[in-house]
Design a protein that fits this description.
It is a single chain. With 143 residues, the chain is of the alpha/beta class. The chain has a single domain, classed as Roll (Diaminopimelate Epimerase, Chain A, domain 1). The chain is built from 5 helices and 4 strands, in the order H-E-H-E-E-H-H-H-E. Helix 1 runs parallel beside helix 5 and helix 4 runs antiparallel to helix 5. The radius of gyration is 14 Å and the shape is globular. The model has no long low-confidence stretch (mean pLDDT 94).
């Protein structure tokens, strides 16, 4: 099982997700597993569907996928957010994560990316009074 993050770091990641979602109707999930059996994007699509992330009202969910032992990651947005983010946004966010990972700052990298994604989600999908949290904020884990 994934051992890269301490319990404190996992709590920081969940807190970052919760904080980011206070400003948006969008949803952010983080999924961590040891091995990625295919390309990271293919696996992220599989996990996205497995977690039923496509079921948000505005199709504005984002998955941050990380395979620790395989040293792979992807960021996958649903159709609603993909339709409005500027070209190159996902690559720039992936760059933030990659830079932190190279320095060994895995939790910091994920938290920074969650914050950036939250800012972009808030720009296009601001929080509304009637907003409900459509997806859990916790980290999901694979094997």
């Amino acid at each position: 099982m994934v051992k890269l993050f301490t319990s404190q770091e996992k709590k920081r990641i969940v807190a970052a997700i919760t904080q980011a979602e206070l400003r948006t109707s969008g949803e952010i999930r983080v999924h961590i597993e040891n091995y990625c059996p295919s390309s990271s994007l293919d696996r992220a699509v599989f996990v996205f569907n497995q977690l039923k992330m496509y079921k948000t009202k505005e199709r504005n969910s984002v998955l941050i996928y990380l395979a620790t032992e395989s040293r792979k990651f992807s960021i996958l947005g649903d159709t609603g957010i993909n339709a409005v983010v500027p070209e190159g946004f996902w690559e720039s966010v992936k760059g933030i994560m990659q830079d932190s990972f190279r320095s060994g700052n895995f939790a910091d990298g994920i938290c920074a990316v969650v914050e950036e994604i939250g800012i972009k989600l808030a720009e296009f999908f601001p929080y509304r009074k009637d907003d409900t949290n459509e997806l859990p904020n916790d980290i999901s884990f694979g094997s």
